[in-house]
Design goal:
Elements: H1 2-18, H2 25-48, E1 51-54, E2 60-63, H3 73-93, E3 117-123, E4 128-129, E5 134-146, E6 158-159, E7 163-169, H4 170-173, E8 181-189, H5 202-208, E9 211-222, H6 233-248, H7 252-261, H8 270-279, H9 289-302, H10 308-326, H11 330-348, H12 354-368, H13 376-390, H14 392-398, H15 404-427, E10 430-432, H16 435-462, H17 464-472, H18 475-489, E11 495-497, H19 503-518, H20 520-524, H21 526-547, E12 549-554, E13 561-566, E14 569-573, H22 580-591, E15 596-602, H23 611-617, E16 621-628, H24 636-647, E17 651-655, E18 660-662, E19 666-670, E20 677-682, E21 685-690, H25 695-703, E22 712-715, H26 720-727, E23 731-734, H27 741-748, E24 753-756, H28 757-760, E25 763-765, E26 772-773, H29 774-784
Parallel strand pairs: 7-9, 14-15, 15-16, 16-17, 21-22, 22-23, 23-24
Antiparallel strand pairs: 1-2, 3-5, 3-8, 4-5, 5-6, 5-7, 8-9, 10-11, 12-13, 12-25, 13-14, 18-19, 19-20, 20-21, 25-26
Helix pairs in contact: 1-2, 1-3, 1-12, 2-3, 6-7, 6-16, 6-17, 7-16, 8-18, 9-10, 9-11, 10-11, 11-12, 12-13, 13-15, 14-15, 15-16, 15-19, 16-17, 16-18, 19-21, 22-23, 23-24, 25-26
Amino acid sequence: MIQTSSLIICLGYILGLLFTAVPWGGVWILVLGIVGAILFKRRNRLRQIPQKSENAGGKTKSTPNIWQNFPHPRVWLVAGFVGLLATVYFQWRIPQPTTEDISKFIPTGNNNQEQLVIVRGELVSNPRLTRSQRGQFWLEATQLDEVKNDKGPAGVPKGVTGKLYVTVPILQATGLYSGQEIAVTGILYQPKAASNPGAFDFRKFLKQEGSFAGLIGRQINIVDTSKKRQWGLWQVRERIVRSQVRWLGIPEGPLVSAMVLGSKAVDLPYDIRDLFVRAGLAHALAASGFQTSLILSVILQLTKRAKKATQFTLGFLALMIFLSLTGFQPAVLRAVIMGFAALVGLFLKRKVKQLGSLLLAATLLLIFNPLWIWDLGFQLSFLATLGLIVTVPAITERLNWLPPAIASLIAVPLAATVWTLPLQLLVFGVVPSYSLLLNIISTPFISIISIGGIISALAALIWPEAGSALAGLLHYPTDWLIKLIEFFSNLPGNSIAVGSISTWQLITIYALIILVWLVHWWQRRWWFASLIAFGLVLVPAWHSTNTLFRITVMEASTEPVVVIQDRGIVTLINSGDEGTGRFTILPFLQQQGVNQIDWAIASDFQGNDSNAWLEILQDLSIKNFFAYSSQPGNTITTQAIQQEVQKHQGTYQPLTPGQAVNTGSIVAQLINDQLPVLQLQIQGQSWLLVGNVKPKEVETLFKTGGLSRPQVLWCSSASLKDLVLMLQPQVAIASSSNLDSKALSELSQSQTKLFFTGTDGAIQWTPKGQFEAFIQATENKSSML
């Protein structure tokens, strides 16, 4: 009874945190608690009435009441109140900048003058390498100084507070360590929210870390060079990593260290990290349950003849050391709490219920930090562990015709996939096609590397050379694992984009999974529930793909990037600068369930040599590629693009200015070889994309009849005023809003509707609707919740 009551109260707390996503979330949990109390009040009375039945001899006997295991109605009321308090507690714990937070001192408005500042503070993390090959670390700011500029003397030094996200040139970050007091010269900036559908929300990420500002550093000065280097557990972590990298090299060394300590504690190369994520093996890089159970198994096996108290003490110390080395990650904390519960059960000689310990671990962690309820790593770790507890036995039972080892090898990844895949579809919209098979094949390699890595790490703490020698034995298993994942990643259809599912689809699918878990009728008809779940994902995706017509103008800095979705036919115009393909275009197309680009048109407005096309071609094939170029000859990048297109049976066709491209839904034409002006005809509308040209040149072209008046105009902010007043389009889209007040006032008097992708984000249009800014639509949706 106590366990059931505690279970309901813990669930009330977790549901209260989850319901923070809906209006009056805690009130709904309280209402559910009251309804539960009313429904079970009568059943609680029935519990007190003895049920009798007559036997063959005419005597009566008591029969057990079927409601006797239900908790008292008071428990449901307590759970409802706990859920209400959870939503209040969540709002209270949301980080907010103080009046002296360093983010309050960032200049606002359209100020193009960069103000150099010197921020003094203490490092609270060791430097890491970013994708752009810069060093990154967290700085606890204490003082802010302005650097003298042409406009006047610097201001008075200010005392500030707040956690700062700092990036610096990699050489400047070399040799820094946590606890140092430094001064960083650079430029403060406000983090940006996601500007495009499916893009990374940098502002949200920093807010979850308790930070509200970033600093692009240029130079670092150590404040006190005479201060001795303070000892910390990060030095132990660094000793292990260096020892394993010494003989294994890169990337094998960091990979082994990441599989022992977790990828967040190790500076793992991004190409290896991305390789594991795309293959569906990201869990192998997250130190959590597998490593915890492995450590406890080794400790208990070595001390099997010792007293229970000794086993408990050594196991507890091992878990604490492991937790400290991994950096107190949510997934590791969850695994350590469950491991500690297992040790308690061993010490008390009582069997521990894994489901109860999982729920207790989740509740304790969410009391410590309720914001983790929306941390994707925490959610996936909790769901995967839940799947291992409740679903593996059922799958293993159905695979009893196989040897137990093989059945377990299949059941574990399959159960974890069943419980985590719906959430992955909500966030990413992509299914790794060979993930299940690859998990089964790679499990022996991961086990050998993890066991060997832990032994090597322990040896490195005593004698680094011994740790290096033991790590060297893992070269071939690690190399084979990388090659195995690369092989599956290069197979056709290695990942399928089905599009991001909605919240109601997610809730319905998890409701079906829970029914199969708890209800006997659904357990016998699990295949029927699977068909419903597949239908909930595939049918809406198919309907949307075959009925949707939408134009999306992406926020991509100074180059126009346009995606046209026409009932399953996808056209992409331009790819932007390097990085735009990986971080802007691909996430959007995956969210939309796009697996192939049918038409690609490259006009290369900014002369960036089309670097982002190669980023796109790494994940998506292009059926027809048309490249406008005013310069004769093939560059190395152009040849690489052509080879990648033809590698996937696509066609590559270079075009000269003046040639038209007809995709069926649009007609595109680069006007001439002198001006980067691309004209589009889309469903009777005329679109004009104007690059970096002088307005007078466009005016000459317009007056000579070489250019028609467009309904939609895209141009840079520098030429926006002149082009709008001259062409008078219905809608004008500019890359940024860096205009003076006089120009904005004149433009506001025109009939043209203005959008700025720099502040409005991506701009989308459908034939039945109006132009809509992504950031405004996102804010409206958030305000409704």
